[in-house]
Amino acid sequence: MDIKSLNKRILISFITTLSLFLLSSSVLYIQSVYSLKSITKNNLNQITQQLDRMIGYAENALNRADKYAGSDCSKETLEALRVLEANTPNIRSINLISNGHTYCSSIYGETSELKQEYSETRLSVYISKVINPGVPFVVLNHYSQESKKGVVATIDGFYIYNVLSMARVNFPVYLRIGDDVISSLSNNIVNKQNIAINGYLHVQKPSQENYLVYSDYSFRDTWLYFISNEKTSLILIAMFSVLAGSSLFYFSGKEPHPKEALKRAIKKNEIVPWIQPIFNRDAKVCGGEILARWLHPEKGVIAPDNFIPVAEENDLIIPLTRSLLKQVQHQLKDTITALPDGFHVAFNISPDYFNHDFLIDDVDDFLVGFKERKPIVVLEVTERQQLNDDINMNIINHLRDKNIMIALDDFGTGYSSLSYLKNCKFDYIKIDKSFTQDIISKTHIGNIVKNIIELSNSVGAKNIAEGVETTEQFEELKSLNVEFYQGYLFSRPISMDDFKDKYL
């Protein structure tokens, strides 16, 4: 196998391996992203449920504390606030406010030192200045705009952080209340700036409590998740891709089954027509026999002896011949006027082809392609395979009625020649090259050839001598009145292009 073919196999195998890996990995990545999105949605649902429950507890506590709004920070009031705080989960304090300032706290009692100002927003985030300074906390506000008095419940940022950290993926979860954002990455930072919701993958869960829980993933985040969770699958995909590419490399280098290789070659028009010119007694070209050659993309020109038996054994000889008919028509139809008058084109036809009526249609189609002048079509019947007397002879006679010439090839080397001559009229009888080659060295061969010629004349058939390789053979055959000649003395089989260049 040449280097070019080897490099092509390597390249195709590499591209196949890479394509399989990238395609499979991409599908797996998409599945991983959907999985991450699904997991995140479930996480956010759970977190939202926990936060709603936490806010619900605080709401219940405030509903019970509303009656103390505007009251003095008496011992009874303070005790009631502290009981509510103690009985309410996740509450850090319950405070009474007036004009936005705390004046009574369940933690500090009556106080004017808490300078924390509260907005009128029902749910808001603040940073602690006294308890756990810098740590955010959430405020639920029952505030009367008319009286400027109200009750607030504070939820410690540690509780919020613990809830946000419930996520089963190692990526941040954010709680957004108004313009403020608390992150699961830290329990002591409130991001007072808007965090842009513009990640590669964004999943959010709004709440009826007027807050939003969401996660943002960058492209890098999704890839880190993908790689960390799909290592085994990626390794298996890589192994499968390499195996597939290696298998392709291996099997592409193996010789296909001869039948399949030939079938594919016929379909791709790799089986092409060559022609061996036929000459008259004056050594002028007057026709040609169409022969098949396989132009193999790797092995070059393959002789018919290497593939015609395969075609005959696997019912491919008819498709092969039909392909040659079409190709010869295509190559000669534009140059037919340059051919000598009476130019004949001979095709070898297998006996099985004569079992099918479409042989007649195929020959008609061949001739239809020639507009100005048509060549004489000669169908050569080989004597090395026996014809079916009932079917084939009828088709042969029908072809002759349409002025298609019939030649008996390899005369005297196969089945009963006389039986053929009895059942069918032939226009040409071809003298086999085995007689031609010995006509000089063996006297009795000359007598056999003379008898063949006399027999041909008696049935009205002309002779074509095959395998003429020397001038002596040519002169001897001429002396016996052979009319046409074919052999290496005149020309080897050549391509159709070479034939047109040399003889037209």
UniProtKB/TrEMBL annotation:
Its EC number is 3.1.4.52. GO terms for cellular component: plasma membrane. This is cyclic-guanylate-specific phosphodiesterase. SUPFAM superfamilies: EAL domain-like (SSF141868). Residues 255-504 form the EAL domain. InterPro entries: CSS-motif_dom, Cyclic-di-GMP_PDE-like, EAL_dom, EAL_sf. It catalyses: 3',3'-c-di-GMP + H2O = 5'-phosphoguanylyl(3'->5')guanosine + H(+). One of its GO terms (molecular function) is cyclic-guanylate-specific phosphodiesterase activity. Keywords: c-di-GMP, Cell membrane, Hydrolase, Membrane, Transmembrane, Transmembrane helix. It is found in: Cell membrane. Its main location: membrane. It is a multi-pass membrane protein. Pfam families: CSS-motif, EAL. PROSITE patterns: EAL (PS50883).
